[in-house]
Every structure is written in C-alpha cells, then in structure tokens.
Specification:
Blueprint: E1 14-16, E2 21-23, H1 25-28, H2 32-48, E3 51-55, H3 65-80, H4 84-88, E4 100-102, E5 108-109, E6 112-113, E7 117-122, H5 153-178, H6 187-190, E8 194-204, E9 213-218, E10 224-229, E11 235-239, E12 246-249, E13 257-261, H7 263-268, E14 278-281, E15 288-299, H8 311-314, H9 332-343, H10 345-351, H11 353-359
Length: 382
C-alpha cells in the first residue's frame, strides 16, 4: 500500500452503510429494561464498529436537539466567514496551549496536507506557568483565543462544550457497564477537570486535479469523539471486520452526533474496544463542509489502568494496533503533549523548544498526525 492515499472522489471506495443509531436517553432516563438494552447495543457496536450515531444527547427533552445543533453549526459558519485578518488574529502559533486558528493545508496526515481550516478550543482554566518542577504536559492548560470581531462565539461554544461533556460522561458510564465494570469505573479519571477539546472545522471545495484529502486516515487519541456534521457528506470509516478493508460512508443525520472511540479506550480494553480509522474527503469545487468535533479525555494528570475484562470479553480482545512511529502512552497529559508537539511544529518551536529536545523531536519536524491524533497502524485502502 502507498504511504499516502490518492485523491479520491467524494465517496470513492465507500459504501452507503448507515451506522447504528443509539438514544442516550434510553440509558439516562429509561427503565431497567431500556438501560439494559442500550448497554447491550452499545457493547455490540463499540466492539464491532467503534462508530455510531447518537440521539438523546440533550438531558432536557424539551430542548430540540436539531435547533441546538443548527445554532452551533451557525456559530462555526460565522467564524469562518470572518475576514482572514480576523481569523489570523487568533492563530494557534500565538498560543502555548495549542489553541486557535489553523489555515487549510497547514497540517499533515500520512505525508499529505489536510485541506481544512479550523479553530481549536479547550476548557477555560487558569494558566499553569512553566517551571522546572512541573511536568511539560501541565502547559496544555490555559486560556483560549477568541476573535474580537465575534464576541458571542465564546459563550455559545463553551456552553456546547459543557453540554457534550455531560453527554460524554454518561456514555462512559454505559461503556463501563458494557465492559463488565462498575458503572462509575471511569468517574475518578474525569473528575473535576477533564480534558475538553473543541474543534470547529471548515472543508473548502477542491477543484479537479487537486487533492481531496480533507483529513487523512487516522485514529483519535482521547477517549470519546462526538462529532456534529452539517449537510455535506465526506466522513468515511474503515471497515476491517468483514472481508477486505473498505471505506464506509457516514452521511449526516440531522440533529444526531456521530460518536467514535479513541485510542485510550482501545488501550485500556486490550483492543476489545476499537478506535476506528476514519478520514474526510473534501467536497467538490464550490462545495463546503462544516463540522464541529468534541474530544473528551481524562484529566491531564490521569493514567487509566488496563481493565480486567470478564473472561468472555477478554477472550475476544484483539490487542492494540501498534505504530512504531507513534508509541501510545496511557498517561493522558504525556500522550496529548506528544501529539501536539508533533502535529504543530510551529507552535512547538516557538513555545516549547525545551520539550522538543526532551521528546527527541527536531524543531520543525513534519507532523506525525493531525490535531494531536495519530496515523493508523494498519494499512488502509486508497
């Protein structure tokens, strides 16, 4: 297989295959039978596919999910509609915490540029100043950059981030039960200050003969990803369980989130849970795709222990995919810092030259992943 995927057509190699649709309210508000059925469906889906649609992610049924989703997508459109000067005023290179704006083509996956622009945000927490007695990963905590030209953006996106954090924590409780653990098995690692990472993404249309790599094949490095898509297709998931590996289209479903599992859950479950390889194909010329991705991870200082699975589940564990170019670390802060340093060499060289030396990364070295996410270990079709 080549190191880089070719420039595909919008759904090249991808079969239309709707993923399961789960309703979180069956777990959070259902009776014992509904909760048990949700856990069973989640167990099957998380093991086989690692991707699914989620409804019921708003705790209050009186709040229409479609309307909330439309509002946050509009907030993303408003940001990307700003002048280039306004977007550049919050460029990520200004932030030691890897927060801010990145222009299309500035990140690399599998040796190819990703043709998307994005705004990375996180929890608004007090800066932890660097010092000799503090670990490097503590520098990831701190403030966001907000565009002065769009003052309403801050409250809208922080509220969205909190809403999805609550939904993600409930989903993790259901996953714990699905893995034969106590329902509160993951609570301590996320208590107080979980890592919240929000990314507004715009994929501009690409013309004939141009690369259609919106973002190349990769896995996500945290625990859970909750993705909101607009009406433009492009997300594809690698199916590896049935025959030859092939791409499955994940079309937008209005008001529903797309959930996928990150590498942390693959690590702690010895591969019983699958962090699935996925990519985004850019729209054709004159098209546009908007999405809002939320990544939930344990606290920066947390390290999740490997789970002791029930015998029937342990017998089905597949082991982890291993990438010698990107060794996985169970400690949240160390693993996230490694990814950020490699993925954003301009930020790293400007703010963290000492950490680059400690990690053995040459200043200005090509990015190994995307947004702190890694390249997949298995070979993938083009």
């Amino acid at each position: 297989m080549p190191d880089t995927p070719p420039s595909p057509t919008p759904n090249a190699g991808a079969a239309a295959h709707p993923l399961p649709v789960l309703d979180l309210r069956d777990f959070t508000q259902g009776d014992s039978a509904q909760r048990a059925a949700f856990v069973e469906q989640l167990r099957d889906t998380a093991h086989r596919v690692g991707f699914f649609y989620l409804r019921g992610w708003v705790g209050d049924a009186a709040q229409p999910e479609d309307r909330l989703a439309d509002q946050v997508l509009q907030a993303a459109r408003d940001f990307f509609a700003l002048s280039q000067a306004d977007k550049d005023s919050v460029r990520m290179v200004n932030s030691a915490q890897f927060r801010g704006y990145t222009a299309a083509g500035e990140e690399i996956t599998r040796g190819e540029r990703d043709w998307r622009e994005q705004l990375d945000l996180g929890a608004e927490r007090a800066l932890i100043p660097p010092s000799a007695d503090r670990p490097g990963w503590a520098r990831l905590q701190g403030p966001n950059q907000w565009p002065a030209a769009l003052p309403a953006l801050r409250s809208a996106l922080l509220a969205w981030q909190d809403l999805l954090t609550h939904a993600g924590l409930q989903l993790l409780r259901a996953l714990a039960l699905a893995l034969g653990q106590a329902e509160n098995r993951f609570d301590a690692a996320f208590a107080g200050t979980p890592v919240q990472h929000l990314k507004l993404i715009h994929y501009p249309g690409r013309g004939e003969g141009q690369s259609r790599q919106g973002v190349g094949p990769h896995k996500d490095s945290g625990c859970l990803t909750l993705l909101l898509q607009d009406t433009q297709a492009g997300l594809q998931v690698l199916e590896r369980e049935a025959g030859e590996p092939h791409w499955i289209a994940v079309p937008p479903l209005r008001g529903a989130l797309v959930v996928n599992l990150g590498e942390v859950l693959e690590i702690v479950s010895s591969g019983w849970l699958r962090a699935t390889v996925h990519r985004v194909v850019s729209p054709a010329q004159d098209g546009h795709r908007q999405s809002v991705a939320f990544f939930l991870s344990p606290r920066l200082d947390a390290a999740l222990d490997e789970l002791r699975l029930p015998p029937q589940l342990a017998a089905q564990a597949r082991g982890m995919d291993r990438d010698p170019m990107n060794p996985l670390i169970a400690h949240t802060g160390r693993n996230l810092l490694k990814g950020r340093l490699r993925s954003h060499p301009d930020v790293s060289a400007r703010h963290h030259a000492d950490l680059l030396a400690a990690e053995g990364i040459a200043p200005g070295a090509p990015a190994a992943g995307t947004g702190g996410r890694t390249q997949p270990g298995p070979q993938v079709p083009g």
